[in-house]
TrEMBL record:
Its cofactor is Mg(2+). This is mRNA-capping enzyme subunit beta. One of its GO terms (biological process) is 7-methylguanosine mRNA capping. Keywords: Hydrolase, mRNA capping, mRNA processing, Nucleus. It comes from Polyplosphaeria fusca. Belongs to the fungal TPase family. It is found in: Nucleus. It catalyses: a 5'-end triphospho-ribonucleoside in mRNA + H2O = a 5'-end diphospho-ribonucleoside in mRNA + phosphate + H(+). Its EC number is 3.6.1.74. Residues 1-78 are annotated as: Disordered. Heterodimer. The mRNA-capping enzyme is composed of two separate chains alpha and beta, respectively a mRNA guanylyltransferase and an mRNA 5'-triphosphate monophosphatase. One of its GO terms (molecular function) is polynucleotide 5'-phosphatase activity. Residues 139-388 form the mRNA triphosphatase Cet1-like domain.
Length: 433
């Protein structure tokens, strides 16, 4: 089959010219993605995972699902059931205490007092509840993203231990809006579409890594529309509608300049010792991003951003697709003096400056949306990304493993991931509509 039959022109029909980001190193396929391939795609040889640590193993289809995915009353496999009995043994008492009734909220009703008890757990009711009477039915894409995080971070024990033992190192979890495109020529790309007409996770083996990339960009008009939409949400959060609990959205405007320097072997040796083997195993060129205040020139950050894994999601019904990324952000402890500035062939050093005008919106101490205008080498690009607080997500996962949310219809770990996906969808639909 001709690959062109699966493509749609990435250029906007309204004639607006889109500029794309400067080429980044080609992302490696996520080790958590399925290795089965689509019949219409060529066979692609992928490099091994960035880390050869045993906890990085991809969960196979026949492996038992992680403990966070089990619901109350669902039968556990023998090995998990034995661990659960062992964990609960010290807390057993001869006279178990009666459980308190579920909390209720006021809801309109036709009875005498005008209210009726309603569970606050968010369980399915009425027609929504399936024949099996399950309280919740999981969203398949959200569950896939949960598995992606569970495999690549939560159960990646050696990675988490290395981060915990390394000052200045943090895990970054981000979602980016953009388009998954296929390179047809040096100047022309087309958006990749699938055979299905709805949102879905892309198999890593279906992507030709030498021809396909994720373009994180939007037009100027889309940038303005998104800025206006997010600003309205900030105003509404400060004056919430009657009867709705306020969710405060914080707003911050920054102007910064990025420059990139080569991270050579000597620079790697300056990084925290537990992190060095992870960085050294990378097959891509490592860079130091030095960020300065645009007005004062003060150095704000010196960061090595190391990619762990990516997960691509196609969204044919909206303007944008999504890339879910897991990275390490490593503070570079060495001096800037003596570093080799990365300059592309035919360009001058000042052409490599990335001048960022960014507006950030954060809420619930868990999410942050960055709307950024980037000017580099005479070109202007607009980017939108969502960051999830890794400490909040990992804290929720650890609570699940300790059994602190046993019996919850929706656990915090799954709820945070669902919130991430819902935010990606809502903003994408706002622009598409």
């Amino acid at each position: 089959m001709n690959i062109a039959s699966l493509l749609v022109d990435a250029e906007p029909k309204d004639g607006l010219q889109r500029s794309y980001t400067v080429s980044d190193p080609k992302p490696e396929p996520s080790p958590a993605m399925s290795t089965s391939k689509l019949p219409t795609s060529p066979t692609v040889a992928h490099p091994p995972p960035l880390s050869q640590l045993p906890a990085r193993r991809r969960r196979n289809r026949n492996d038992p699902k992680p403990i966070w995915a089990y619901r109350e009353g669902e039968e556990l496999p023998p090995e998990l059931a034995a661990e659960e009995r062992k964990r609960l043994q010290p807390t057993l008492t001869p006279q178990p205490q009666a459980q308190p009734p579920p909390p209720i909220i006021a809801s309109h009703s036709s009875n005498g007092n005008g209210v009726r008890p309603t569970p606050v757990s968010g369980e399915l009711q009425g027609y929504e509840r399936p024949i099996c009477n399950d309280a919740r039915v999981y969203d398949e894409v959200t569950r896939r993203v949960c598995d992606f995080f569970w495999t690549n971070i939560v159960m990646h024990t050696e990675l988490r231990q290395a981060v915990a033992a390394s000052p200045g190192v943090a895990i970054e979890i981000e979602g980016r809006w953009g388009q998954l495109t296929n390179k047809l020529s040096d100047k022309h790309r087309q958006r990749l579409i699938s055979l299905h007409d709805s949102e879905g996770v892309v198999r890593a083996s279906a992507l030709d890594q030498t021809q396909t990339r994720f373009e994180s960009t939007m037009s100027l008009e889309q940038h303005k529309k998104m800025n206006q939409y997010l600003n309205r949400l900030v105003q509404q959060s400060r004056a919430p509608a009657s009867g709705r609990p306020p969710i405060e959205i914080n707003y911050k405007h920054t102007k910064e300049v990025d420059m990139f320097y080569d991270l050579d072997p000597a620079g790697i040796m300056l990084l925290p010792e537990p992190i060095q083997p992870i960085v050294q195993q990378s097959n891509t060129r490592q860079r130091i991003r030095v960020t300065r205040d645009m007005q004062s020139g003060e150095v704000l950050r010196k960061i090595v951003k190391h990619r762990i894994a990516n997960l691509e999601i196609l969204s044919p019904q909206t303007e944008w697709d999504y890339r879910i990324g897991i990275n390490l952000e490593i503070e570079f402890p060495g001096p800037i003096e003596g570093l080799q500035l990365l300059v592309e062939t035919g360009k001058m050093p000042h052409d490599m400056e990335r001048r960022k005008d960014r507006v950030s919106y954060s809420w619930m101490n868990a999410y942050q949306i960055d709307l950024t205008q980037v000017v580099q080498g005479g070109t202007k690009n607009h980017e939108l990304e969502l960051e999830v607080d890794a400490d909040v997500l990992l804290g929720a996962a650890d609570k699940m493993q300790r059994g602190e949310q046993q019996g919850a219809i929706v656990n915090d770990f799954e709820a945070i991931v669902a919130g991430m996906m819902n935010n990606l969808r809502v903003l994408s639909r706002e622009i598409t509509g």
